[in-house]
Amino acid sequence: MLIAILGILIMIFGEEISWGQQIFKWDSFGYFKEYSYQNETNLHNIFNPFMKYLYPIVGSGSFIFLFLIWLFPSKRNNYLFNLIFPHPSLFFLVLILAVSSFLGGGGETFEQLLTLFALLYSVRIFLCLRFTNIDLLSSKT
């Protein structure tokens, strides 16, 4: 499960940095040059017209899902469950993320907040795996 989460985070990061254009300095080519709205080698710029619908679905859907998990903690004594799901201290960031998904401006604010969320979530998982004696429900994590 953690490998899947790592893969998803790497995909998000790769998409945001345009799959190597920023690191390896390659130019957009072929399909990406023709269909990408920002002339970059990433998939999310090909679907730009749909992003105004996709961002609110992802933002509000994530908020509702996590809110229900945080509100009804039936499996909170399971270590793996608590490791995989974000800590309730991220509630306000997830709320702001959901609200920003409805704002205009091409979703850049949403993408930046999603990156911040992914960073905080990743750091928490790393710390919990590195220091296994940490109580995953503690407000001190």
Polypeptide structure, described:
- There is one protein chain.
- It is built from 7 helices and no strands.
- It is globular.
- It has 2 domains: 1-46, no CATH class; 48-141, no CATH class.
- Helix 1 (2-16) runs antiparallel to helix 7 (108-130) and helix 4 runs antiparallel to helix 6 (91-100).
- With 141 residues, the chain is mainly α.
- The model has no long low-confidence stretch (mean pLDDT 78).
Keywords:
2 domains, mainly alpha, globular, about 140 residues, 7 helices, single chain
Coarse morphology: globular
Number of helices: 7
Mean pLDDT: 78
CA radius of gyration is: 17 Å
Return the string of H and E elements.
HHHHHHH
Number of domains: 2
Number of strands: 0
Q: Name the beta content range.
A: under 5%
The proportion of residues forming helix, as a percent range, comes to: 55-70%
The helix-and-strand class reads: mainly alpha
- What is the makeup of the main sheet? none
Q: Low-confidence parts, pLDDT < 50 over ≥5 residues?
A: none
